[in-house]
Write a structure and sequence with these properties.
The protein is an alpha/beta fold. The chain is 41% helix and 14% strand. It is built from 21 helices and 12 strands. The chain has an 8-stranded mixed beta sheet with strand order 1-8-7-2-3-5-4-6, sandwiched between helices. Helix 12 crosses helix 14. The chain is elongated and about 105 Å long.
Length: 593
Amino acid sequence: MSHEEQMPLNTIVAGDCIAGMRDLPAGCVDLAFADPPFNIGYEYDIYRDRLACEQYLAWSRDWISGVYHALKPEGAFWLAIGDEYAAELKVLSREVGFHLRSWVIWYYTFGVNCRRKFSRSHAHLFYFVKDQERFTFLDEELENRIPSARQLVYNDKRSNPAGRLPDDTWIIPPGESEREDTWTLRPQDLEGCFQTAEDTWYFPRVAGTFKERAGFHGCQMPEQLLARILRCCSRPGERVLDPFSGSATTLAVAKKLGRQFLGFELSADYARHGQARLEGIRRGDRIEGAPEPLMSVPKTGEDKQAFARQAKGTIPAIWNNDAARERAYRESQLQLTIQGVREAFEGTRDGFSVDRVVADPELNRNFTERCRTLGLAGDVATWNHLLFRLRKRKGLPANATSRATEVTWDQCDPYLAASEMALQGLINDERASSLDEILCDPALAAEFDRLAQDITPGYSPLEYRWAALKIRKQAKIARGRGHVLLDVHKNQLSRQLAKASPWAELDLNQLPEQAGLYLLKQQRKVLYAGETRNLRRRLQSIRVEAGSTSPFASQLLSLGYVTKPLESSGPLAWQSCLVTKYNPHFNFHELRG
């Protein structure tokens, strides 16, 4: 059994994270982010954040050990913590087995105002790995980089156009400074002191008035900060764990970035609100907030147009051009959705082909439910269309189909005409333009099934749909062969099929049980031209009755037929010949030469 089958995914588990992580398979997640209670007396929903020091550290060791257990050998662990226990939890994490790669300072505005000490405006972000030699760190991805001082301040053409990774920084440099003041109201005013290319990260704290505020939880990380971590230390499709789900922001960002996720939350109320938040998110939705806050606004008193002009030139358009960013957002959501469709297909195909997964109602339910669980943008028709697009662009593993759908021409012969007429009927009525459109859209597929059932009852939706797929697949070959037959036999066919008998006067039990060709006509108009391996079986299967919604309800219907061996010509070749000659109303248009 795989890790995915053993662990809950894309959800929040209400309960204690220590017990929950203990029950997870060892090495099942790729990245863990934890923002635990800081033990500073904050009143949570059902938890009071005030333990004795020894008790808090013992509890911290337990949950950090749980993270270590759940993390893959090459996985990463990020820990957000305040000043009070930063040093202790750093040492404790090392004792559990983690190795520190970076100690990042998150600097924010709107910090907590303190009366008898300096106001808090930062938190510590520890970046740990289990293995110092093997880990994921996607440093070359443009979205993980930021503009350098050469780009942002000096407009230096020699700068690396891809910018650089964030580093540590000092807000006011040590030693002598040309600045007379030692304070600032806004980080963007610190041109020479607070550079974006440093690893003290500036992201505004999510204040109560901010649009991204979830509303039900008092402590919430900025989405852009978490996005930076997830983009650097995990890939789409990998699993992200948050032991303290809280406002569900880690999980929300994971879902937006196409990661799978699992959160634990002690408060059932928070878990319920968090789950509701996640249900409103689709994979690829944009991350709230500015990707690089120092680039999003000018300095105090600076003209916005001047700021934009200065930032232009050495900086990639995606960083300072709204239209370029919009294109990038849209393309990112499309690609993440396509990747999710691929994941859903691989997880539910059961060895079958793309055609079978779309055409088979049961398999398609499983596939589209997985797409829904992954939080993909769109609907059932969208996901089915994208699956066909993946197949067409060779975006799926080659030769991965291990279970063939075996339906012979003889097996589908009784209902083949019903499938073809239902297909072309929807196209004639301009309700669809192709078989793909019909199969992808649940409403159209159901209407196709109803029409086919009304013409020739007694078969399953999969049988009707698969027959239509066989017709479409064979059409191109049949057209070429049918052209040869028409060139030689068109006059003979006209003589043989000229005699037509009124349907009402026919005794279908007297029709030959042989292969042959036939025309169904209404007065002089040919409604359908067919070939069949058994004339009696085929024509007995077509429902023609007063009051029926079948296209053959009219009493003016007539039949002309001729026996004809079909084996040497191949499937649908004679039918294509007839379709080209008579242009019937209900034959599949791609059979027409």
